[in-house]
């Protein structure tokens, strides 16, 4: 195998600085090529430049064809794990328990970074059943169809704008997949936490996601005495049979006929 020779460190250092100037905090080889001309670097020398950059610790490989600039070029501020997550798969947005923590819906610190992307996107895994891990931090991605990829806002986290589910979508995701949000009781507690969420918006989102989620939302709002005219709409939704209040738990407990919910908590 032909050995790739590194180029002079001065040239490699110039490329790293140009990447930082152009706000390429995380980047692919192709993106680095686009910046190379600004550093007076020939395209044929790119592989050598990367060899030099890695050997000096000026860039770090996150996964195949995704690199991160060392904090030396970022004002000493390391890149946040949310920024890494949204570059591991694009498009994607921080969601579930990570979004719960961001919106102060829980005081627990998630041990996994949760994000949502589109169905069909290739996910970074070390094996089919293991989560991708970078520098001790694990990343879990949920996949949904494009029509359900909504309720996302861009927020500043550190020095980057990060896509993250808004508070209403975050709460709705909690009813859809409570196991990714600390469990159903943690989700229920989040709904009872004083916050600036819109009940009409919650109802609109629930209706767009799934009838099971809409029924759970109605039960939760009524259980917490968060009455709203929209409850009538949720209660009237046609559905045969009963839905588990906690989709992650066993089928047991009393039946609530108004909401067609089995209260399995």
Characterize the overall form.
elongated
- Order of strands in the sheet with the most strands? 4-5-7-6
> Spans with pLDDT under 50 lasting ≥5 residues?
none
Quickly count the helices: 10
Task: Let me know the number of strands.
Answer: 12
What distance lies between the first and last C-alpha atoms, to the nearest angstrom? 60 Å
Percentage of residues assigned to helices: 25-40%
**What is the averaged pLDDT score?**
91
Order of secondary-structure elements = HEHHEEHEHEEEEEHHHHHEEE
Structural class: alpha+beta
How many structural domains in the coordinates? 3
Oligomer: single chain
Strand content: 15-25%
Give a short account of the largest sheet: 4 strands, mixed
Radius of gyration over C-alpha positions, nearest whole angstrom: 23 Å
Outline the structure in words.
This protein has ten helices and twelve strands. The longest helix has 13 residues, at 9-21. The chain folds into three domains: 9-73, Arc Repressor Mutant, subunit A (Orthogonal Bundle); 80-197, no CATH class; 198-265, no CATH class. The chain has helices at 9-21, 29-36, 46-55, 81-88, 96-102, 167-176, 184-192, 199-209, 211-223, 230-235; strands at residues 26-27, 59-63, 66-69, 92-94, 112-118, 132-134, 137-144, 152-157, 160-165, 243-244, 255-256, 261-262. It is an alpha+beta fold. A hairpin with a 2-residue loop joins strand 6 (132-134) and strand 7 (137-144). The chain is elongated, with a radius of gyration of 23 Å. The strands form four sheets. It has a four-stranded mixed beta sheet with strand order 4-5-7-6. 36% of the residues lie in helices and 19% in strands. The mean pLDDT is 91.
């Amino acid at each position: 195998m032909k050995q790739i020779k590194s180029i002079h460190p001065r040239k490699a250092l110039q490329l790293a600085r140009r990447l930082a100037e152009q706000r390429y905090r995380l980047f692919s080889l192709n993106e680095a090529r686009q910046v190379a001309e600004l550093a007076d670097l020939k395209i044929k020398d790119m592989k050598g430049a990367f060899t030099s950059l890695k050997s000096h610790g000026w860039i770090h490989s996150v996964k195949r064809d995704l690199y991160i600039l060392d904090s030396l070029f970022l004002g000493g501020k390391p890149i946040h794990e949310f920024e890494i997550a949204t570059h591991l798969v694009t498009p994607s947005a921080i969601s579930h328990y990570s979004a719960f923590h961001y919106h102060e819906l829980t005081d627990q610190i998630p041990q996994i970074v949760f994000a949502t992307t589109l169905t069909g996107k290739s996910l970074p895994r070390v094996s089919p059943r293991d989560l991708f891990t970078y520098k001790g931090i694990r990343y879990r991605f949920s996949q949904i169809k494009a029509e359900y990829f909504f309720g996302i806002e861009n927020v500043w986290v550190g020095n980057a704008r990060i896509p993250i589910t808004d508070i209403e979508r975050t709460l709705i995701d909690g009813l859809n997949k409570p196991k990714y949000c600390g469990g159903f009781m943690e989700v229920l507690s989040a709904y009872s936490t004083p916050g600036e969420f819109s009940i009409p918006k919650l109802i609109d989102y629930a209706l767009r996601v799934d009838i099971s989620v809409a029924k759970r939302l109605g039960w939760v709002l009524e259980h917490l005495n968060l009455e709203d005219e929209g409850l009538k709409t949720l209660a009237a939704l046609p559905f045969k049979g009963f839905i588990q209040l906690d989709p992650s738990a066993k089928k047991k407990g009393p039946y609530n006929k108004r909401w067609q919910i089995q209260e399995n908590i």
